[in-house]
């Protein structure tokens, strides 16, 4: 359909570095009306010139060829296809497909390849809704699931049965930022003829290229770093043309399609991805180092710190370690909430990866409905904090953290460090 707004298929294959790709990849130099930016094609349907035009379009489809024009909005729109071209190139994949959310991308991909009687292996410590979708929804369709720890390759090998069809993994994981040894997972999976799908939302294509390490399919919640401005929801899957054709056929029926306006916002966000992630890598690293030496902090999880269990894997596979830092205070659940309430710069909420820093206490946010025992069984303690650094000045973020941590010591005075008029949280 790209022919609709694009005069020639872009050849950006000579643009190899992410900083250039984020700006130019997937986009033709010459766009309709001489517009420098990619147009938003706000239409639900595409009109044919005459019957001959219609028949030519249908013949192409019948032959399994890429359509040269649009037909109906649920099968995609030109703004979306430019985003897909950019993301495919950034990840080094043949093709990408965008979705209305990250979960839509994950759910549609799993449903495309899994049938009743199939078996799925998931690495534990993954996004909670992915785990719920697999254990609660897929199990109702007669698809069984096994959870294995992200660093236990023997358990992974042992979990494979003749019915295993897919391995789903995430890296770095949430909230402990565990990093999977991707080449070894890919090797084990391919020896068994199993499709590998990795959720690399926390890594971004700037920090990790899973396809180049042997993974079949990469998915991202574009809601996070890729969009980067906390103002849109979208998802993407990237991989081979064959796999993507099957996923696209599924989504033609499911209809979890992103709208053209959102795709424009994503395209705009992607322009600065490399710059933003560079700053977020730096902010995450500086914050992790600061927290690790602070007496009020019990433990820090950041893959760029030698103390992280997957430091060696991360060093080997990743170009940077992202903006998310998880840590536990020497405090209980209430004391930890007081620390979070004392922070002035970050917003309190779920999500991550945007320009604004966001902080959360997983026990009260993503895991609120669980009791303390259930939370403990999956390793979520009351004093755990997840800090997702934005692109603010690292010194400001650290000064803010230092002020809030002071409250954890027996305070000489109860006076709050909150400076009125300075709060960004309003
Ligand atoms: C947010 C997130 C998702 C889900 O994405 P949505 O866009 O919210 O549907 C999936 N995986 C990870 C790792 C995420 O952080």
Keywords:
single chain, 426 residues, alpha/beta, seven-stranded mixed beta sheet, five-stranded mixed beta sheet, 37% helix, globular, disordered N terminus, disordered C terminus, binds pyridoxal-5'-phosphate
Can you describe this structure in just a few lines?
The protein is built from 15 helices and twelve strands. It is an alpha/beta fold.
Describe this entry's structure for a reader.
The chain is an alpha/beta fold and 426 residues long. It has 15 helices and 12 strands. It has a 7-stranded mixed β-sheet with strand order 1-7-6-5-4-2-3, with helices on both faces. Strands 8-9-12-11-10 form a 5-stranded mixed β-sheet, with helices on one face. The longest helix is centred in the middle third of the chain and has 20 residues, at 273-292. It is globular and about 75 Å long. Mean pLDDT is 92; it is low at 1-9 and 413-426. Pyridoxal-5'-phosphate is lined by residues 101-103, 127, 170, 174, 199, 201-202, 221, 223-224, 233, 235.
What is the oligomeric state here?
Answer: single chain
Q: What small ligands are held by the chains?
A: pyridoxal-5'-phosphate
Largest sheet: spatial strand order: 1-7-6-5-4-2-3
User: Radius of gyration over alpha carbons?
Assistant: 23 Å
Which class of secondary structure composition applies to the elements? alpha/beta
**Overall outline:** globular
How would a textbook summarize the main sheet? 7 strands, mixed
Number of helices: 15
Give start-end ranges of low-pLDDT stretches. Answer: 1-9, 413-426
């Amino acid at each position: 359909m790209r022919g609709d707004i694009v005069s020639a298929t872009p050849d950006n294959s000579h643009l190899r570095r992410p900083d250039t790709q984020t700006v130019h990849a997937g986009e033709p130099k010459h766009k309709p009306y001489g517009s420098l930016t990619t147009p938003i094609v706000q239409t639900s349907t595409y009109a044919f010139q005459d019957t001959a035009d219609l028949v030519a379009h249908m013949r192409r489809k019948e032959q399994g060829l890429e359509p040269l024009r649009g037909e109906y909005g649920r099968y995609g729109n030109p703004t979306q296809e430019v985003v897909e071209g950019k993301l495919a190139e950034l990840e080094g994949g043949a093709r990408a497909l965008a979705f209305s959310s990250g979960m839509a991308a994950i759910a549609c991909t799993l449903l495309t390849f899994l049938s009743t009687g199939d078996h799925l292996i998931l690495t534990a410590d993954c996004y909670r809704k992915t785990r719920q979708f697999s254990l609660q929804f897929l199990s109702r369709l007669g698809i069984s699931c096994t959870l294995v720890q992200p660093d236990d390759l023997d358990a992974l090998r042992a979990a494979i049965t003749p019915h295993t069809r897919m391995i789903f993994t995430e890296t770095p994981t949430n909230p402990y930022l565990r990093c999977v040894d991707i080449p070894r997972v890919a090797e084990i999976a391919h020896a068994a003829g199993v499709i590998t799908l990795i959720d690399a939302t926390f890594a971004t294509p700037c920090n990790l290229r899973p396809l180049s390490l042997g993974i079949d399919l990469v998915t991202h919640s574009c809601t996070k770093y890729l969009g980067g401005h906390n103002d849109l929801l979208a998802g993407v899957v990237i991989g081979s043309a064959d796999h993507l054709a099957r996923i696209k056929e599924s989504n033609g029926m499911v209809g979890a399609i992103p709208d053209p306006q959102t795709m424009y916002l994503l395209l705009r966000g992607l322009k600065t991805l490399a710059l933003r992630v560079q700053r977020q890598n730096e902010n995450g690293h500086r914050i992790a180092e600061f927290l690790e030496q602070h007496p009020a902090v019990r433990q820090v999880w950041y893959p760029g710190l030698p103390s992280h269990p997957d430091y060696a894997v991360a060093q080997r596979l990743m170009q940077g370690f992202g903006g998310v830092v998880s840590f536990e205070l020497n405090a209980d659940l209430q004391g930890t909430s007081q620390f979070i309430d004392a922070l002035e710069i970050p917003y309190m909420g779920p999500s991550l990866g945007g320009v604004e820093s966001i902080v959360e206490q997983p026990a009260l946010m993503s895991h609120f409905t669980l009791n303390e025992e259930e939370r403990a069984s999956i390793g979520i303690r009351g004093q755990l904090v997840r800090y997702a650094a934005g692109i603010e000045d690292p010194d400001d973020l650290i000064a803010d953290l230092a002020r809030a941590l002071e409250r954890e010591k027996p305070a000489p005075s109860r006076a709050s460090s909150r400076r009125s008029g300075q709060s960004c949280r309003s």
